[in-house]
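Please check what follows.
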Amino acid sequence: MDDLSRFCWHNRDCRDHGTRGAGTLSVCMHDGKKHPVRLFSCRSCKARLSERQGTPLVGAKRETTKMVAVLDHVSEGCGVRTTRRLPGVHRATVLRYRRLAGEHARDLQDALVAFAPADAGGAV
């Protein structure tokens, strides 16, 4: 049995959007031959989404461990050549994941700032 308590639903049309550990998610199938990715089904709205939905890894064909290694090296400040060499991927792959991670971080920052509490009036 898979522990799905850390996943939340990304379908904005569902009443359980954004809730974690509600028990409405279940694994309905695995997608991919070499490196399967779980597909979740919602008991409320009957929609399906990938476990990578809402991450920079959505739509990626490579195995998760290799992509996470690339993103780890990028986050540590390694250059493209070093990042390419260590996990053994092409330069274009490093550049693509770096761009996707940057876009994801920007969108996440925008969402967090939109829900940030108003300043209490004190200067920082």
Remarks:
- The longest strand covers residues 25-31.
- The chain is about 35% helix and 15% strand.
